[in-house]
Amino acid sequence: MKNSATTTARLTGAALRALLVLTLVCGVVYPLAVTGVAQLAFPAKANGSEVESGGRVVGSELIGQRYDLPGKDPSDPGEAARPDLRWFQPRPSAGLGTNTRNTRYRLLVSGATNLSADNEKLVQRVGAARAAVVRDNSTPTYRVDPADVPADAVTSSGSGLDPDISPAYARLQVHRVAQRNGLPVARVEQLVADHTAGRVLGFIGEPRVNVLKLNIALRELMER
Fold first, then answer.
1. The most confident of 93-102, 107-116, 123-132, by mean pLDDT
2. CA dist 214 to 34, 52, 171, 194, 218, Å?
3. DSSP assignment letter at 71
4. Who has the most CB within 10 Å: 64, 111, 129, 171?
5. What is the distance between the alpha carbons of residues 176 and 141, in angstroms, rounded to a whole number?
6. Domain range holding 73?
7. Helix 174-181 crosses helix 120-137 at what angle (to 10 degrees)?
8. What are the two backbone dihedrals, phi and then psi, of residue 220, each rounded to the nearest 5 degrees?
9. DSSP, residue by residue, 136-156
10. 139-185 pLDDT, tens per residue?
């Protein structure tokens, strides 16, 4: 009986010591080490890839934003927020929305639509989005051809929070942005070209334009 109690006490003590050591190593030392390395090696990425403008953080280059005019009555579908056509617009995103705590993101519903290509709801949504793109981006001197509307202009990304658009979609918006802001078309085209990133390592992914960074550059151009 005495040996059994001694063995139990010894094993319990060993287990508690192991728990303490593993807690310190895995719960304190390792996280601090990883955080320290991240802060030293790539602090910008470790802190959320924040984007600053005018001395303050305006977003993250990894998360898309909407550029909308507020509706007069958010509870009325007819008065809902609508795109602010002075700015380059992102791709449709199911994850972008509002709630009482955060007016930019509804992160709990971030994700893809999971609708098949022949789903009637998706077909109607894409058709309506294409019509809106043609309508919003056509100007008195430039008419958007529906055949030129790229896929990312009418479909959401897998995450619903894609911060980038294709160069084709950015170029499609150039005439509208130039007309709305009283800028030369050629200058806005150059702005898009300057903010077009190529494939990673030259072969991974597709060329892309970060909408947040592009709109920051657009604002700086208008303030000159």
1. 123-132
2. 33, 13, 12, 9, 6
3. P
4. 64
5. 10
6. 65-222
7. 40
8. -65, -35
9. HH-BTTB---GGG--GGGTS-
10. 999 999 999 999 999 988 877 788 999 999 999 999 999 999 999 99
DSSP SS3 for 65: coil
Cα 17 from Cα 77, distance rounded (Å): 61
Asked whether the beta carbons of 59 and 212 are under 8 A apart, the reply is yes
- Do 8 and 75 have their domain in common? no
- The dihedrals phi and psi of 34, each to the nearest 5 degrees, come to -65, -45
- Same domain as 211, residue 131: yes
Structure tokens at 71: 């509706």
**106/172 same-domain check:** yes
DSSP string, 81-122: -EE-TTS------TTB---SS-SSB-GGG-S-----TT-HHH
DSSP H or E run through 14: helix 2-24
d(CA 24, CA 66): 43
Gap between the Cα atoms of 213 and 62, Å rounded: 11
Q: What is the pTM of this model?
A: 0.77
- Rounded Cα–Cα distance for residues 186 and 219 (Å): 16
